[in-house]
Design brief:
The complex is a heterodimer. By secondary structure, chain A is an alpha+beta fold. Chain A is built from seven helices and eight strands; from the N terminus they run αβαββββαββαβααα. The N terminus of chain B is likely disordered. The chains are: A alpha+beta, B alpha+beta.
């Protein structure tokens, strides 16, 4: 019978319409921004720089090795290395980035900078509400905008942060052991409760 | 070569030149590049006689982004996120095709679990691509919104899976040379299995919505016929080729990945018209669900990436390789020539939707303008891939 196919289709539409009142599977609309779905833990948006301790500039893990700048596919990272070394938060002399800019209007969130960083210094952020009123350099993130604490990183991606902390703690412990084996060792490694204390003791 | 439609006696008119002015009764219209049903910025210069298309000239290049040249100047890994942006509906399969060709070039082995994850993600991609294609196609036919929203509802569930695994809905950047970037947790696999188990319900619904619908039949059957000879000689691949009845699927022919381990059938059409192409997608979704169910049962534990592959300063040996997979739109291939450096000497993409689009004129001649939209929709193009 002609028209029966259309009626069948209408039945599907009716089922979806009525079902949307009862079945969560059929009504998946989320009324953003009043309602928000929780972000998945693996969600990534734009990179930020991790710092340990309290000082957001002295505690930066970044040593300005420029690997991320070189590997970044759209070339959105710009780094100028410091001429001098300055002690980081645990007193070890390190180079530091004099300038560290990421143009997040160019960044394509590919996570390659995170993968290539040997110092666990750059990680992916989850903040996505980044619209700006200005047109040009408002999305050019300077070093101050990029620096975020390790606690923040632990909060946004707990599993990854735990893995990184464990890795750094193990490295610090190994370094401390090496130091303790040397005759000039001042004090043995304390048990690593947190990576910060473990690194500080090395 | 053109497809002749006997019912239109006006086809016997002599061919006309494609001038930029009115010629006789022919009216030249530039459809696109901002036409809503061209799926992006695609332009067709059509010469019309009344409502019938007499000439059609596709114009590409509005979305050209220099993909291949960028690939030759970026490191091998640096091209991986760019491949997401080729066919932005199916970034997982794009990643896989590129990873496969680099693995071929450098002779890298992939762990078993990673191969299974790749199959799972590629088939999920196929499900969401075909679902949204059917939605768009019905949208082009005038079923404004409703089927598209049903399709997008299902697609969003799969994109949520991608997001929770890779971190991004569409720009997944998930595969790496020698494996995958992130391991799938058992909860993720269980959740994915749940979504796949419910997917046939949606396919059935969609089938009820479109298959017997008189309007869909009137708009699609015997519209845009492609003969198998034309399809083969033009290099058409994917569901469009199989709709003509040519049994060619890279998953079966090449047996890349672990596809030989799965039991699945290749749906074949008979007439090569738009209706067959539409049905091809519906049937392929069913087969993909079958593959996914087997994959969820078989997926082993173990490493997901080959630890020998360096992330930085990755230099494959001198040589060339062509890796191809059956992407949802057809055969997607990457041809790479290495001169031993950190970036490829030549980087070439064989995009399925571009090559499938080349016979658009043969499909459209003799049909009305309204049919052109339906035919174009049934080819399943994404301009990001056509123009690169």
């Amino acid at each position: 019978m002609i028209g029966s196919g259309i009626l069948k289709g209408m039945a599907v539409t009716a089922r979806n319409f009525v079902g949307s009142y009862f079945d969560k599977e059929r009504l998946i609309t989320v009324q953003y921004p009043e309602e928000r779905d929780p972000l998945p833990e693996n969600y990534r948006n734009f990179p930020f720089l991790v710092y340990d301790g309290d000082d957001s500039q002295a505690g930066l893990r970044c040593v300005a090795c420029k690997i991320c700048e070189k590997e970044c596919p759209p070339q959105c990272i710009y780094i100028v290395k410091s001429e001098n070394k300055k002690p980081d938060y645990m007193g070890k002399p390190q180079f530091y980035p004099k300038i560290f800019d990421i143009d997040i209007s160019v960044c394509m969130s590919c996570q390659i900078c995170v993968e290539v960083c040997p110092f666990e210094a750059i990680k992916m952020d989850k903040d996505f509400e980044l619209s700006r009123r200005e047109r040009f350099d408002a999305l050019l993130m300077r070093k101050d905008d990029l620096a975020k604490s390790n606690d923040y990183y632990r909060r946004i991606s707990p599993t990854d942060a735990a893995g990184v902390d464990a890795k750094l703690a193990a490295a610090a412990e190994a370094a401390a052991k090496k130091k303790a084996a040397a005759p000039a060792a001042a004090k043995p490694a304390t048990t690593a409760t947190s990576p910060v204390s473990a690194r500080a003791s090395s | 070569m053109s497809v002749t439609i006997e019912t239109l006696e006006a086809m016997e008119r002599p061919p006309v030149s494609m001038g930029s002015r009115l010629e006789g009764e022919l009216l030249e219209v530039s459809m696109g590049p901002q036409h809503p049903s061209t799926h992006g910025v695609f332009r067709m210069n059509v010469a019309l006689e009344g409502e019938i298309v007499r000439k059609l000239k596709p114009v590409f290049g509005y979305l050209h982004r220099n993909h291949e040249k960028i690939g030759e100047n970026a490191s091998y890994l640096g091209s991986m996120p760019y491949t997401d942006r080729l066919d932005y509906f199916c970034s997982m399969t794009n990643n896989w095709a590129y990873a496969l060709s680099v693995e071929k070039l450098a002779g890298i082995e992939v762990p078993e679990r990673a191969e299974y994850l790749r199959v799972i993600l590629a088939e999920l991609t196929r499900l969401q691509n075909h679902a949204s294609l059917l939605g768009f196609l019905l949208n082009d036919m005038g079923a404004w919104g409703t089927p598209l929203m049903y399709a997008f509802r299902e697609r969003e569930k799969i994109l949520d899976l991608f997001e929770s695994l890779s971190g991004s809905r569409m720009m997944c950047d998930y595969m790496r040379f020698g494996g995958c970037r992130v391991d799938a947790s058992p909860e993720w696999l269980a959740h994915a299995k749940k979504i796949v188990d419910r997917f046939p319900r949606f396919v059935d619904e969609l089938e009820q919505l479109i298959v017997g619908n008189e309007v869909v039949i009137a708009r699609t059957q015997n519209v845009g016929n492609v003969s198998p000879e034309l399809a083969v000689s033009a290099g058409i691949t994917g569901p469009m080729l199989r709709a003509c009845g040519v049994n060619y699927d890279v998953r079966k022919v090449d047996g890349y990945g672990f596809y030989p381990r799965f039991k699945f059938r290749i749906p074949l059409g008979e007439h090569g018209d738009t209706y067959d192409r539409l049905m091809m997608r519906v049937l392929e979704m069913g087969e993909s669900v079958g593959i996914l169910k087997q994959a969820f049962e078989q997926v082993p534990t173990g490493p997901i990436i080959n630890p020998k592959v360096k992330i930085r300063a990755f230099r494959p040996p001198v040589g060339e390789a062509y890796g191809r997979i059956e992407a949802p739109k057809g055969e997607l291939g990457f041809y790479l020539i290495s001169d031993g450096g950190t970036n490829p000497y030549r980087y070439r993409v064989r995009p399925p939707s571009f090559i499938n689009l080349t016979i658009l004129e043969d499909m459209c001649l003799g049909h009305t303008v309204a049919d052109v939209m339906v035919i174009l929709g049934s080819i399943d193009i994404v301009m990001g891939e056509v123009d690169r």
